[in-house]
């Protein structure tokens, strides 16, 4: 008897991915709000502390022996260092870069994945992937506009975020060969919390009751977004879902206008469109029938 397969519902998967984009944008808005009144290091520490607590509870629900065992703890430590660099560069960047532009620049991560994959996995990129990289970098140049008087070195922070996030994705793919997603999530949260604990006493703050509530919500929102991401991929393939991730840029732009009064200029909007197009180039090509039966991306 073959095991029952979960019922796939592509439409539900698409709605879930749209919810993921909204939740990640909301997470970034909450982060920007908190770092205006609390130190960045303290906000990041609480966020990963909550992440670790929730991930621990998820693993404890599994009664299997050795559920916390990992075969490659040093790989998880390296993942945590990359994710921590990703989080801190993004948060520090948000102190000076509008939310929409920051979000768009972070979406250059797939281009960095294309550049780094041959080094880690020996995977050669297709011409469409290289075209995607070129379009993405052109979009970045349009957004940051180095020749403009409005250019700021703070724009480099979200670019660094994209680079570290790409490294984190590739290392997570390596870790997934031996460890389950809950274990990977637990150790990356644990190591991020431990690393931040070394310096957080120098940035300690005493949040109000409302700020504590927002900090806890921040950690829960991040973990919930990743859970919904995994659920969406259980209903539809990456070819269908990944382009919807770019809705996060739209949500970030709307949040920026409504909450912070940040109105992107025409050049910024053009650059955002190019960054979105850089991802869609690859997915438009992959949507052909030759790829429809291929393996699906793992969340």
Q: What is the overall number of helices?
A: 13
Calculate the mean pLDDT score and round it: 83
| Biggest pleated sheet | none
Class per helix and strand makeup? mainly alpha
Low-confidence stretches: 287-299
Shape: globular
Radius of gyration computed on alpha carbons = 19 Å
**SSE pattern:** HHHHHHHHHHHHH
Distance between the termini: 29 Å
Report the count of strand segments: 0
Strand percentage: under 5%
Percent helix among the residues?
Answer: over 70%
Organism: Pseudomonas quercus
Transmembrane segments: 12-30, 36-60, 80-99, 105-123, 130-147, 153-171, 183-206, 212-229, 241-260, 266-284
Pfam family, one: EamA
Keywords: Membrane, Transmembrane, Transmembrane helix
What does it look like?
InterPro entries: EamA_dom, EmrE-like. The chain crosses the membrane at residues 12-30, 36-60, 80-99, 105-123, 130-147, 153-171, 183-206, 212-229, 241-260, 266-284. This is DMT family transporter. The longest helix has 26 residues, at 10-35. 71% of the residues lie in helices and 0% in strands. The protein is globular. α1 runs parallel beside α11 (247-260) and α4 packs across α7 (156-175). With 299 residues, the protein is mainly alpha-helical. The protein contains 13 helices and no strands.
